Amino acid sequence: MSRAVIVTGAAGGIGAALCERVRKDGYIAIGIDRYAAPAADIDLQHDLSKSEQLVDVGRELARDYDLKALVHNGAVQPIARAGETSLDEWVNALRVNVIAVDALTSGTRENLAANQGSVVVISSVHGRATTGGITAYATTKAALEGWVRSAAMDLGPDIRVNAVCPGAIDTAKLREGFARWGESMEARKAVLRERTALGRIGEPSEVAGAVSFLIGDDARFVTGTVLVVDGGATARLGTE
């Protein structure tokens, strides 16, 4: 069977870069998203909040492909504060951002194990240190890193589980998030650049490169860890 990598959230900026990178690395890119994902070789349009259906999607893909990796990049980011986030927003964020990867792992784990495969999730610096107004997003990203540590124990030694933790990456989702600041896009970008050690905003391809490393053979002794790709943003002491 053909060797493939599953990428959720394949229609977004990081998702498209992930599909392009795994194709460059010699794998079939299977994209899963609510929207069309032209960068994927195989474009499956599914709602990541439908957890039960995702188990079946994983099983179907496991029958047709040798799976090298499952990369969970799909996420929602409700713009809402603590105590003001609706129950529906909480449930949807938990299902999409966290439960979706567990559901897909359930359907693909035997195939991944047989192919010395791995699971990589795209976390966020907001799971570690955050700002106001995105409570559900920050909470679920923190939970996602907890899942990585636990799943590494449960799925090893046959499947490795890791995370990439991006900082500010130049995507449409980043620009959407600027709305909560009430500033112009350029003003907010200037702040991000100033507070990042490397003095710039990251590119989606740089996240994809980190994922490529983690699913590759050079990382075969790496599991249960989080690779931070934030230009040094979280190295900064915010009080000084």
Described by its quaternary structure, the protein is: single chain
Secondary structure tally: strands: 7
Which stretches are low in confidence, meaning pLDDT under 50 for 5 or more residues running? none
Walk across the major sheet and give the strand order.
3-2-1-4-5-6-7
Considering the chains and any ligands shown, give keywords for the structure.
about 240 residues, alpha/beta, seven-stranded parallel beta sheet
Model description:
- The structure is a single chain.
- The protein is of the alpha/beta class and 240 residues long.
- It has helices at 13-24, 51-64, 87-114, 135-155, 172-177, 185-194, 204-215, and strands at residues 3-8, 28-33, 42-45, 66-72, 118-122, 160-166, 226-229.
- Strands 3-2-1-4-5-6-7 form a 7-stranded parallel sheet, with helices on both faces.
- β1, α1 (13-24) and β2 (28-33) form a beta-alpha-beta unit.
- α2 runs parallel beside α3 and α3 (87-114) packs parallel to α4 (135-155).
In brief:
The chain has 240 residues and is α/β, with parallel strands linked by helices.
Write the layout of secondary structure elements.
Blueprint: E1 3-8, H1 13-24, E2 28-33, E3 42-45, H2 51-64, E4 66-72, H3 87-114, E5 118-122, H4 135-155, E6 160-166, H5 172-177, H6 185-194, H7 204-215, E7 226-229
Parallel strand pairs: 1-2, 1-4, 2-3, 4-5, 5-6, 6-7
Helix pairs in contact: 1-7, 2-3, 3-4
